[in-house]
Amino acid sequence: MLFVSIGGTIDKLPMPIATCVYEISTSSIFVLLYAVMLFLVLDIGRIVRLVPKSWLYDNWISSLAIFVFLFAIFTYGNHNYRKKIRQPVSVTTTKDLKKDMRLVLVSDLHLGYHNQKEEFSRWVDMINSEHPDAVLVAGDIIDRSIRPLLHQNMAEEFRRINAPVYACLGNHEFYSGLKESEQFYKDAGITLLRDTSVLLKENLRIIGRDDRTNLRRNKVSQLVSPAIENEFTILLDHQPYHLEEAEQSGIDYQFSGHTHHGQVWPISWITEAIYEDAFGAWQRGSTQYYVSSGLGIWGGKFRIGTRSEYIVLTVSKES
Predict the structure, then answer these.
(1) Residue 314 carries which DSSP code?
(2) What pLDDT is recorded for position 53?
């Protein structure tokens, strides 16, 4: 299997070659996973005598069938990845919200060698078509290297978004270099919230928590103030661990990403075992949550049993 360290050797290659190497090396991980699962099933079938031994030895028809199966499933996986799902979510509040708010929530863009400017431009068009009051990003805008974003002037595309953009950091911003990531956010016109918050004039507060990669980040309880009782609060926290913290701190809504919902089955089963909420809407007490499977993806562009999505959140005052 061809694999090159994303943070090192690949950055020294010319961009077209680096892109090709990234796509092949990361895609091969998923292809190998499914090939191993398929051969395991066939071997078990042979052991219990459901699969004739002749099918597995020096049989070009079986080899062709395996190739066709893998080609078909990953063609589907690529098509499924490119199809972006619009997920509408509506919440109401008794708090003093000045007007209904329409927010686009996205996570895990993973812009870089594989998700490039042309693809991101399509995502920006989708976001702008929603006419949001604000766009919230729950981390991992950058994949593992800042180089392709600078090479393609990706910041220019962010500035096309017709709404203020607020974001917290994800673990991949730390991998790509924190100083470089922060400068990119600034150049892109993104308001980066690192254990800080901003109060919109509509009386909606957005809190951005630093990623748990930063072992010195604040607890959620340290990010709220007494005024929270009158404000509708949205917490951006990239990795959805310890959801009870938001509930205990009186947060109204938490938006997270990171899990990708496993990207492909059966890895989705693993994420569901690890996280209290690995994907979708959740509730603890009066706190509502949404863990997104992500708009982009890490590595090979395949979604099998999962989806790529963006959330359109409408927050309204109860009548």
Answers:
(1) E
(2) 82
